[in-house]
Amino acid sequence: MDFTLPDSALAVQRGVADICSRYDLDYWQRCESEKRWPEEVWAELAKGGWLGLAVPEEYGGGGQGLLELAVATETLSASGSAGGSAFTYVLTPGFGAMTLARHGSRWQRDELLPKLATGELETCFALTEPDAGSNALGITTFARRDGDEFVVNGQKIWITGVQRATWMLLVTRTVPAAEARPRTNGMTVFLVNVPEAVAAGRLSFQPIPKMGANTTPSNMVFIDDLRVPSANVVGEVDQGALVLWDILNPERVLLAASALGGAEVALRVAVQYAKEREVFGRPIGANQAISFPLAQVKAKIELARLMLYKAAWLFDRQLPCGTEANIAKLTASQAAWEAADHAFQTHGGMAYSLEYPVARLLADARIGKVAPVTEELLLNYLATQVLGLPRSF
Questions:
Q1: Which ranges carry the Acyl-CoA dehydrogenase/oxidase N-terminal domain (predicted)?
Q2: pLDDT of residue 87
């Protein structure tokens, strides 16, 4: 049993860290307060080839897997971006490149993967709906076949990155949930050209004001009689669940990686402050009420990282990884929240000052306990699917 990272992942770690070393906490604080995408970092990651890690080499990418993407995400997050970094690697390298590399048709791979590898094209993912929430199988956005096209109608919510995306991976029902047997049947994933759909008046979006991760807007999306060619189906019609699992498990892994990086930032900020801040003639870090909780956070970070890397390793070998991905997401998000909360407590009243990054780290960490799937649903999965306890519904 070997717990060392492969050379490919170590190279990613060094390369991304080198770029991140030029952008401090103040940079990420400005991006958040100005609600702007980290263009400078994005451009450097693209130039260095770090966005195309999951694109096969024949399409100009690095030919790497989810483990390398997770390491890149964690490294970027730990540099100071925290929760905001998740979208850098989730939206395009994760949702777009990795999905099309596994499930895309020949023309989809030939046309899109080379441009995804360079960052020329960006993608977003539209699954969640106002009335379905975390119940992915209960979505009602419907695609009706009309000759060689599908006509799509519906709404989506919390869709991040629509403003920058050229292509949206849109999850629909092609068989109503009530009629599908089993319920996982009758789902279809489409590629939608966002600028074209917006220009035609068939797709619109409205940003949602939110408390954190404002480097990328999240949106309500409205779809009205949108025509999508059948050639834009990703995978097979009615078999979109097979594609969906290969989107959702990497999403959990990458968001866990982002959470772990955020936990490292919060812990680093807390430890530094605890060393420097003196009260009653000694650094506050000498008090066990301060030091023990921070030590506990460190232990939880290391434990979560083991499961994160295991989940990514399994996915890359096309082995079942749902349980590991869910545990990684659960434990990493908990570690991130505890790290940010203890960093806040360590700073005391100064945590309220935006002179320090603690408030941003706290807001970013809180996201992970509810998105993209709530902590309660992760626990429900472990209780029913792993432990075999009775279902409550």
A1: 10-120
A2: 86
- From 194, 244, 248, 243, select the one nearest 222 (Cα to Cα): 194
The pTM of the full predicted model, rounded to 2 decimals, is 0.96
Q: How far apart are CA 124 and CA 72, in angstroms?
A: 19
Residue type at position 149: E
Residues lower than pLDDT 50 in the chain? none
Tokens, residue 288: 């066990």
pLDDT tens per residue across span 255-281: 999 999 999 999 999 999 999 999 999
Q: What is the CATH number of domain 124-240?
A: 2.40.110.10
CATH of 7-122, one of 2.130.10.10, 1.10.3720.10, 1.10.10.10, 1.10.540.10: 1.10.540.10
Closest by CA to 336, choosing from 226, 262, 391, is 262
What is the widest separation between alpha-carbon atoms in the chain?
79
Dihedral of CA atoms 78, 215, 334, 272 in degrees, nearest 10, equals 40
Q: Output DSSP code: residue 209.
A: P
Task: Kindly give, in sequence order, each residue whose CB lies less than 8 Å from that of residue 72, ignoring residues fewer than 6 positions away.
Answer: 12, 13, 16, 50, 53, 89, 93
